[in-house]
C-alpha cells in the first residue's frame, strides 16, 4: 500500500516537472517569436503569447482525449502573489514622474472617476439584460462584481504602439489611467466582497464609499512609506561600500514587502506597490552604486516582462478548458449573447466617461498643447477596450472554487469572460497599431519632449532640463536644448505645485532620504570614481 502511494507521488512529481519544462519552453518560444514579429504591423507579444497558448491548449486537448487543456492549474495566489507585483512595481519604477504628476488630476479623473462610471453602466446593464436571459442564479453582489471585473482594462497593446517622446501627454494618460484603473477595479471588487449587498440601504452605501476611499488612501500611503524606508536604510548604511548584491537584494525585497504588507492589512497591493515603485525610483535608486542602478533597472523590467508573457500564455490555454464549456454546452447561443452584451457594455461604458471627462479636463487647461485633442480621445477610448489578466483573475475569484465550477450561471460568466478577453485582446489588439498610425501619424522630424529626470531608469545617461536649471554641460552649450523643450519651459508657470514640491523636496526630503544630488559620499566608493552626479 505504502509503495503504491509513493509511486503515485513520484509519478505526480514527474508530471509536474514535465509540465514546467513544457511551459518554460513555451515562454522561450513566445519571446523568440515576439522578437521576430516586433516590426509587424499587426502583432505584439501579448497576442503572440495568447495564440501560442491556444494552439498549445488544442494540442493538449487532442493528446489527453479531451480531458484537459492545461499544463498548470490556475491559482489566484500564483497570479496575485507572484505574477502581478513585478508588473505593477515596474510600471511605477519606470514611469516618467514629471509627466505623470503634471497630468495627475486628469489621470485620476479617468482612472478613478471614469472607472466608477464604467462600473455603474456595466453593472446596471448586466442586471437589465442578464435577468431577461435567465443565465443562472446570480445575486446583486454578482452583478456588481461583473461591473468591477469588466471595468479593469488592459492597455498593454496600445502602450506598445505609442511613443513616449512623440506623444508624451497621451502616453502618460493611457499609462497612468491603466494602473489607477486596475487598482480602482480591485479595490471596488474587494469592497463588494466585504459587504452584504442583498439589502442595500443608505448606511451600507455610505460604509461602502468610506471603505473604498480608506483602501485607496491607506494603500497609497503604505507604498510611499515603504519606499521612503528603503531609501533611508540604503542611504544610512550605504551597502555599496561592501556589496552591490546586498543593496540590489534589499531593493527587490523591500518592493515585494510593500505588496505583501498591503495584502496582510487587506489593502490594495496594486496601489501600494505602484507608489512604492515611484518613490524608489525617485529616492532609493539614486542612493545605490551605478552598477546597482543598471542591475535593478533590467532586473525589474525582465521580471515584469516574463510575468506578462506567462499570464497571456496561460489565458490562451485556459480558453479551452473543457470542463467549463461542457456545463454550458446545451446553450451556445446564450453564451454568445452574454459575451456580445458584455462587449457592448464595455464599449458604451468606456465612451460614457472618456469623452465627457476629456471635455471637463480641457476646460481647466489654458495652453493648447495641454488639451486632449479629439483624435487623442479616440485613442484613449480604444486603449481601454481590451480586457486582460486582472479581469480573468477577478472572475475566477468570484465565480469558481480553486479554478473549478459546476454551477451553470458561474460557468456562463467564466466562459464569457474568457471570450471577451480573447476577442478584445486579439481583435482590438490587432487593429490597434494601424488605428494609432492613422489617428496619430508620426512627425517627419521627431521633436522629443525632454524629461526633467536626468538619471531615471529609462534615460540613464541623458542630462536634461529641470525648471530652468540644466546640467553644467547644457548651461555651457544652450544649443543642445531642443525648441520643443524651451517652448514647454516658457509656457509652464514657475509657481506651480511641481515648483513648490521641488523646493520642499530639496530642502527636507532629499537630505533625509537621498536622491539625485544627495548620494552619500564615501572616499574610494564607486560614486567618487564615477565623478560628480547631475545636480
From TrEMBL:
<keyword id="KW-0915">Sodium</keyword>
<feature type="transmembrane region" description="Helical">
    <location>
        <begin position="78"/>
        <end position="95"/>
    </location>
</feature>
<dbReference type="GO" id="GO:0015386">
    <property type="term" value="F:potassium:proton antiporter activity"/>
</dbReference>
<keyword id="KW-0472">Membrane</keyword>
<feature type="transmembrane region" description="Helical">
    <location>
        <begin position="380"/>
        <end position="399"/>
    </location>
</feature>
<feature type="transmembrane region" description="Helical">
    <location>
        <begin position="17"/>
        <end position="37"/>
    </location>
</feature>
<keyword id="KW-1133">Transmembrane helix</keyword>
<keyword id="KW-0813">Transport</keyword>
<keyword id="KW-0812">Transmembrane</keyword>
<comment type="similarity">
    <text>Belongs to the monovalent cation:proton antiporter 1 (CPA1) transporter (TC 2.A.36) family.</text>
</comment>
<feature type="transmembrane region" description="Helical">
    <location>
        <begin position="49"/>
        <end position="66"/>
    </location>
</feature>
<feature type="transmembrane region" description="Helical">
    <location>
        <begin position="341"/>
        <end position="360"/>
    </location>
</feature>
<keyword id="KW-0406">Ion transport</keyword>
<feature type="transmembrane region" description="Helical">
    <location>
        <begin position="169"/>
        <end position="192"/>
    </location>
</feature>
<dbReference type="InterPro" id="IPR006153">
    <property type="entry name" value="Cation/H_exchanger_TM"/>
</dbReference>
<keyword id="KW-0630">Potassium</keyword>
<dbReference type="GO" id="GO:0098719">
    <property type="term" value="P:sodium ion import across plasma membrane"/>
</dbReference>
<feature type="transmembrane region" description="Helical">
    <location>
        <begin position="107"/>
        <end position="131"/>
    </location>
</feature>
<keyword id="KW-0633">Potassium transport</keyword>
<dbReference type="Pfam" id="PF00999">
    <property type="entry name" value="Na_H_Exchanger"/>
</dbReference>
<feature type="domain" description="Cation/H+ exchanger transmembrane">
    <location>
        <begin position="24"/>
        <end position="437"/>
    </location>
</feature>
<dbReference type="GO" id="GO:0005886">
    <property type="term" value="C:plasma membrane"/>
</dbReference>
<dbReference type="InterPro" id="IPR018422">
    <property type="entry name" value="Cation/H_exchanger_CPA1"/>
</dbReference>
<feature type="transmembrane region" description="Helical">
    <location>
        <begin position="255"/>
        <end position="280"/>
    </location>
</feature>
<feature type="transmembrane region" description="Helical">
    <location>
        <begin position="212"/>
        <end position="234"/>
    </location>
</feature>
<dbReference type="GO" id="GO:0015385">
    <property type="term" value="F:sodium:proton antiporter activity"/>
</dbReference>
<dbReference type="InterPro" id="IPR004709">
    <property type="entry name" value="NaH_exchanger"/>
</dbReference>
<keyword id="KW-0739">Sodium transport</keyword>
<feature type="transmembrane region" description="Helical">
    <location>
        <begin position="300"/>
        <end position="320"/>
    </location>
</feature>
<feature type="transmembrane region" description="Helical">
    <location>
        <begin position="411"/>
        <end position="431"/>
    </location>
</feature>
<keyword id="KW-0050">Antiport</keyword>
<protein>
    <recommendedName>
        <fullName>Sodium/hydrogen exchanger</fullName>
    </recommendedName>
</protein>
<dbReference type="GO" id="GO:0051453">
    <property type="term" value="P:regulation of intracellular pH"/>
</dbReference>
Amino acid at each position: 500500500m505504502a509503495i503504491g502511494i509513493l509511486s503515485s507521488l513520484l509519478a505526480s512529481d514527474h508530471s509536474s516537472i514535465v509540465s514546467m519544462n513544457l511551459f518554460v519552453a513555451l515562454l522561450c518560444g513566445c519571446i523568440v517569436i515576439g522578437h521576430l514579429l516586433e516590426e509587424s504591423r499587426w502583432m505584439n507579444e501579448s497576442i503572440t503569447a495568447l495564440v501560442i497558448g491556444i494552439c498549445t491548449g488544442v494540442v493538449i486537448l487532442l493528446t489527453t482525449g479531451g480531458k484537459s487543456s492545461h499544463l498548470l492549474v490556475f491559482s489566484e495566489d500564483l497570479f496575485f502573489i507572484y505574477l502581478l507585483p513585478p508588473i505593477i512595481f515596474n510600471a511605477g519604477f519606470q514611469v516618467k514622474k514629471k509627466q505623470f504628476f503634471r497630468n495627475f488630476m486628469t489621470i485620476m479623473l479617468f482612472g478613478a472617476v471614469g472607472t466608477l462610471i464604467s462600473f455603474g453602466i456595466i453593472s446596471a446593464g448586466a442586471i437589465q439584460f442578464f435577468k431577461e436571459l435567465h443565465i443562472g442564479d446570480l445575486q446583486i453582489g454578482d452583478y456588481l462584481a461583473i461591473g468591477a471585473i469588466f471595468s479593469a482594462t488592459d492597455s498593454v497593446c496600445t502602450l506598445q504602439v505609442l511613443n513616449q517622446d512623440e506623444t508624451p501627454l497621451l502616453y502618460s494618460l493611457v499609462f497612468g489611467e491603466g494602473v489607477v484603473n486596475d487598482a480602482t477595479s480591485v479595490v471596488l471588487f474587494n469592497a463588494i466582497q466585504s459587504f452584504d449587498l442583498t439589502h442595500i440601504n443608505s448606511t451600507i452605501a455610505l460604509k461602502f464609499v468610506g471603505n473604498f476611499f480608506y483602501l485607496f488612501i491607506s494603500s497609497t500611503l503604505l507604498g510611499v512609506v515603504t519606499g521612503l524606508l528603503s531609501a533611508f536604510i540604503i542611504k544610512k548604511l550605504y551597502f555599496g561600500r561592501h556589496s552591490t548584491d546586498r543593496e540590489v537584494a534589499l531593493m527587490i525585497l523591500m518592493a515585494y514587502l510593500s505588496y505583501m504588507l498591503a495584502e496582510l492589512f487587506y489593502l490594495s497591493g496594486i496601489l501600494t506597490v505602484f507608489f512604492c515603485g515611484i518613490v524608489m525610483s525617485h529616492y532609493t535608486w539614486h542612493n545605490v552604486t551605478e552598477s546597482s542602478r543598471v542591475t535593478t533597472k533590467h532586473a525589474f523590467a525582465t521580471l515584469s516582462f516574463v510575468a506578462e508573457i506567462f499570464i497571456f500564455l496561460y489565458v490562451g490555454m485556459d480558453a479551452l478548458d473543457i470542463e467549463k464549456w461542457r456545463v454550458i454546452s446545451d446553450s451556445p447561443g446564450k453564451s454568445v449573447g452574454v459575451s456580445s452584451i458584455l462587449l457592448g457594455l464595455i464599449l458604451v461604458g468606456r465612451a460614457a466617461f472618456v469623452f465627457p471627462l476629456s471635455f471637463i479636463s480641457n476646460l481647466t487647461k489654458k495652453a493648447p498643447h495641454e488639451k486632449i485633442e479629439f483624435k487623442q480621445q479616440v485613442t484613449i477610448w480604444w486603449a481601454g477596450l481590451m480586457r486582460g489578466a486582472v479581469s480573468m483573475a477577478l472572475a475566477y475569484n468570484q465565480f469558481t472554487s480553486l479554478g473549478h465550477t459546476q454551477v451553470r450561471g458561474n460557468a456562463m460568466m467564466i466562459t464569457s469572460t474568457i471570450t471577451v478577453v480573447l476577442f478584445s485582446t486579439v481583435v482590438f489588439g490587432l487593429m490597434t497599431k494601424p488605428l494609432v498610425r492613422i489617428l496619430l501619424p508620426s512627425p517627419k522630424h521627431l521633436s522629443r519632449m525632454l524629461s526633467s529626470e536626468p538619471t531615471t531608469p529609462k534615460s540613464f545617461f541623458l542630462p536634461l532640463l529641470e525648471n530652468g536649471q540644466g546640467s553644467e554641460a547644457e548651461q555651457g552649450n544652450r544649443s543642445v536644448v531642443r525648441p520643443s523643450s524651451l517652448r514647454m519651459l516658457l509656457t509652464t508657470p514657475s509657481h506651480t505645485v511641481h515648483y513648490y514640491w521641488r523646493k520642499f523636496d530639496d530642502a527636507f526630503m532629499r537630505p533625509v532620504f537621498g536622491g539625485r544630488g544627495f548620494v552619500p559620499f564615501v572616499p574610494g566608493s564607486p560614486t567618487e570614481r564615477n565623478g560628480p552626479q547631475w545636480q
